Structures are given as C-alpha cells and as structure tokens.
Amino acid sequence: MVRNILILGGITEAYTLASTLVDCPGVRVISSLAGRTGTPRLPAGEVRIGGFGGPDGLAGYLAAQQIAAVVDCTHPFASRMGWNAAAGCAAAGVPLLRLERPAWRRQDGDLWNEVDDWQQAVAVVANHSRRVLLAVGRQELAPFATLEQPWFLIRSVEPPDPLPPFPQAEILLARGPFTLADEHALLTGQRIDTIVCKNSGGPTDAKLTAARALGIRVVIRNRPRRPETATAATVPEALYWLGYQRGV
Ligand code: NAP
User: Fold this and answer.
1) Ligand 1 within 6 A of CB of 32
2) Is the pLDDT of residue 1 over 70?
3) From the alpha carbon of 83, which atom of ligand 1 is closest?
4) What region does 232 belong to: left with phi over 0, alpha with psi -120 to 50, or beta?
5) Can you tell me the mean pLDDT for 192-205?
6) b/e code 141-177 from CB counts within 10 Å (16+ = b)
7) CA nearest ligand 1 atom 11, residue
8) Is the CB of 208 under 6 A from ligand 1?
C-alpha cells in the first residue's frame, strides 16, 4: 500500500528530504509551497502551491489525500503555518514532525543584542549604529525606514516591492550562502558597524563569524514561539522518525 507523506516546504532540508523519500519504495511524496516567490525551486516528487485555507483547510486536505504523516519544514519565522500544521494534523489525526535547524547560539566574542521584535531592533540601531547591514527579508523592512539615521545596506534575494521610503539606504541584491571571505570583504568595504538579522539557525553562518572577528554588533531577532510537536534537527533524524532505517 502506498504511504502518502506531506512536506511543508520552506527550508533547504525540505528538498533533501523530498529527494530521499521519492526513492523509498511505496512512498508518495507531496511538497507544499506557500507560493511567495514567482519561480520557486521545485522539489522532487509531487508539488502543490498555495495556502490550504487555515487549519480546517489543511485538515480537509490531509483527509482527502489520505496523508499518513506530515513533516513541517517551514522557515523558523513562518510561525503561522507551524500553528496551522499542529491544529490541522490534530484535527485529522495525522502525526506531525517539525524539522528545524537548531538556533544559532551566542559565542565568546559576539556582540549580540537579542530582540523579540523589530521595534526593539529599531531602538538598538537608533542608539548605537551608523552603518547597518539589514538582512531581515524584503517584506520586513518598514519599521527601519522610520529612522533618519543610520545608513542601511539592505541585502535581499529579490528586490523589495514596494521599497519603503528610507531616508538613507542602498539595495544589495544577492543570494547566499556567502563565504567568510565574502562577508569579511563586504563588512569592511562598506564600513558596517551593525548587522540586523533573524536567528534562522543551521550551519555556521559566515556573517556572524565575520562580525565576531571584526567586533561588529549583531542585532538578532529570536525565533517566534512554536507549538509543542515532535522535532528533528536533521534530515536523517526525520527519516528515522518516518520509519526509514537509513535515517539512523
Ligand atoms: P506564515 O506566516 O507562517 O504563513 C502564512 C500563510 O501562508 C499560512 O497561514 C498558509 O496559508 C501559507 N503557507 C505558509 N507556508 C506554507 C506552505 N509550505 N504550504 C502551503 N501554504 C503555506 O509564513 P510566511 O512567513 O508568510 O512565509 C511563507 C513561506 O515562506 C513559508 O513557507 C516559509 O517557510 C517561507 N519563508 C519564510 C521566511 C520568513 O522569515 N518568514 C523566510 C524564508 C522562507 P493558509 O492558512 O491558507 O494555509
């Protein structure tokens, strides 16, 4: 009998998980994407795009597609989908796993200001910063555009649309991952004194390593709270939870 597995996409690990599962006999893999980007990279297996219509819509989808298990691989800051997944899976009686990279942790030498929202970040940079690398995602720029000072270098994969009216800003279109040498050159070349970013987590991050070496302040947003669910930190752990031995 075919086992249907739904992956809620978002992070890189979702692609690795999908491409591994499609090779498992008797498995049908469906990846779900939110549809925020015009030409998304498509994972292996079947793909559906767009919201489900809240927890009830997801529960209906799980029943209609006879989904046996759901793996939530949405970004750590995509908090609504996490709550929807927990509620929808509970309503449909489908087991849910959250696959999430561990958060980055402050290390010796780091000059971190940890904040819970962007208003707190705005207050820190208003008081301490002259030249800021803003790496928060193109849809979350508006709170920073209220400041006359500092100057912002806005790094984004796609152009902000619309771009809030920043008194002083430049756009840098670039897609990571970035090397340590790249980040070191950018931070020194642009005389950056502060980085603002999210605690996305995962492998060592070059901008955080470069900031530590250069004594640059990092204003880092903590992850939003998520529902209590089974969790895995890696793709092999997720495969193990799904019952595939090669995950061990
Ligand atoms: P969100 O606030 O958690 O979700 C908003 C709505 O988008 C959800 O209620 C759901 O609509 C729909 N949705 C989200 N992820 C979905 C998925 N994988 N498949 C189908 N529908 C999905 O998320 P967001 O912050 O807007 O992010 C949207 C997507 O971009 C997520 O998949 C996330 O992984 C990715 N992303 C987000 C960030 C970030 O910093 N927020 C960064 C990188 C990537 P319905 O209620 O209609 O089901």
Assistant:
1) yes
2) yes
3) 3
4) beta
5) 94
6) beebbebeebbbbbbbeeebeeeeebeebebeeeeee
7) 51
8) no
What is the sign of the dihedral through the CA atoms of 207, 111, 219 and 193? Answer: negative
Percent of the chain with pLDDT over 90: 90
pLDDT tens across 55-113, in order? 999 999 999 999 999 999 999 999 899 999 999 999 999 999 999 999 999 999 999 99
Token couple for 54: 């809240």
pLDDT in tens, 214-240: 999 999 999 999 999 999 999 999 999
| Gap between the terminal Cα atoms of the chain | 24
